[in-house]
Amino acid sequence: MSDQTQTSIAEKPHQATAPAKGKGSNNFQVDLGGLIEILSDHLYTEKSVFVRELLQNAVDAITGAELEGILKNGGGEISLEVQPAKDTHGAKQVITIEDNGIGLTEEEIHTFLVTIGRSIKREDLIKQRQGDFIGRFGIGLLSCFMVADRVVLVTRSARTPDAPTIRWTGHTDGTYELEVLDQDLSPGTRVYLTADSDKDGAFDACRVRELIQKYGQFLPVAITVRGPDVPDEDESLTNCFPWEDGFGTEDVKEADWIAFAEKTTGESVMGVFPVESEEAGLIGMGVVIKKVSGPVPNDGNHLYLKRMLLSDEAVFLLPDKMPFLRVLANATLLKPNAARDAVHDDENLLEEVRVDVREAFRDYVRRLDERNPGRLKKMMAAHSRALLDAALEDEPLLTTLVPHIPVETTLGEMTLGAVREQFDDYRFITDYEDYKRAIPLARAHSVCVVNAGFFQIDHVCRKLSRIFPEEPVVETSSKELREQYSKPVDDGPDARRLLKRAAAALADEDCEVKLVCDGKKNAPCVLELRENAAIRRSQGSENDLGSLDFLDDFGSSFGDSDKAVFQMNADTRVIQQLLAATDGPRTRRGIRVLYHLALLAARQTPNQRESAAFEDAFTALFEMGEGGAE
């Protein structure tokens, strides 16, 4: 059959040539066993969700009674009991859950309970106050058939004083019985589940209690659990969220928040802060953990929907590039999916939540900057990469973090804040090898150059001029520094004579000799390592015989432009003395000592020959100073 034919049958009315069997309005038939298999294999991720669904139904029944004024707010009670099998000859365990909620009439059972997809909650109430109810789909009771072969519901409506007590019994084959009991029970509902097997431990009393506490510990009703091996407790399992008392500045209040966060997430926590998103009706806390185990934090983010746990893997709450964060929050306006393990994919609303979480974290960082910079420093040390990643897409956050970002500079390690405070003129180099070549010259002239060859520091430095327009930050290179601070002196007789003496004194070194001036009396000499000079030195050190003839094997890969350059600053006193000195051993030894000092300033490790030459020169100079002959 063609696609066009199929479309016409589906969309256009046709005159029947013969009466069709079952003509008229018909209802779909549902195979309950097949539906339960669908619930088990495709909707719910684990069979234990039946505990959550029973709890949800009980809470919504209590909410209905409160909304109709039948039950005072805070007067709801839920009790759950696991009854063990009485013998080993086929007797089965039974779970009973009881609430003092709104209850059901016989008509409501026929209308809602046995109609898949219809909610038990009254439609008029749902339309008016749907934000007060947890469940929405009317299929929660079916989840009980994943673990039970029979479900019995005994209920009495609280709406009329003379309402009868009704018992509904459902079976996995899709049949059910309905009876009116001659018993005057209190309004509310009891559900009895009879186990079909206990292979998954679904009816284990301690496990059931754990699930009740996991999903319902913050519900606004009193909940008690009884059963084998469950300790007798008079108090309810439910508690308040820690943020419901507000977020104070007292250490004890913050300590309470941190203790809750560590217990809930299972992570070590270094900081907490309040989070709120009005559009989602979300209130809770953001958590900064001490250590990130992976790039995507799948667990530890707890989202409660109307105080019941929806998901402990709510990664969709986190802003991008913030794996060090966890969010623990309760929402009232988000809508759950059918499986109740996530929210509807409303990307606009979820993005609004993520924006609010990011803003809350930004405010937290500002407060730390003002009140507790020590903690912010620890956070930077623990999460520097992720923080920089996030801040590069959030200029207000980057502005707050800039003073605390640690960097390497030609004048030592410091923060960008210290660089901005101490230097009116600071620069950065993005290539690490070029930065290393710039160190001697920059240090000799007290120029602060930031090593921007590390992760994301280059992007940070480029954004500084936009964030702080009054402080232009210049990208530079070793070549630019050399052109600025290495101006050659006039080629007079004294200069030529000193250059000749220096070349003779350093004949064993693979370097050029230059005489420069900068108008300042900074370091007397600098050893500038150009692009391949470090490679030449390392290979020369391996040879360690003072001869570099083996480099000829590399042909033109190394040229004179790759040699190190030993620069003497003619504006300094010591070089002026060398210019005026006569030629002799004292001058040559002084040049060797200066070369060695420049070598160390360039962060180069002297080889065996260089160390021996320095020792000889220094010893001779020392002896001359003691009165020895030249």
Keywords:
disordered N terminus, seven-stranded mixed β-sheet, 630 residues, five-stranded mixed β-sheet, 19 helices, alpha+beta
Structure described in brief:
It contains 19 helices and 21 strands.
Structural class from helices and strands?
alpha+beta
**What is the assembly state of the chains in this entry?**
single chain
Which bin fits the share of residues in helices? 25-40%
**Uncertain regions spanning at least 5 consecutive residues:** 1-25, 120-130, 542-559
Q: Note the main sheet.
A: 7 strands, mixed
- Tell me, rounded to a whole number, the average pLDDT: 80
Count of helical regions: 19
**Shape descriptor:** rod-shaped
Distance between the termini: 113 Å
The radius of gyration is 40 Å
Beta-strand content:
15-25%
Query: Strand order of the main beta sheet, please?
Result: 5-4-3-6-2-1-7
**Structure summary, number of beta strands:** 21
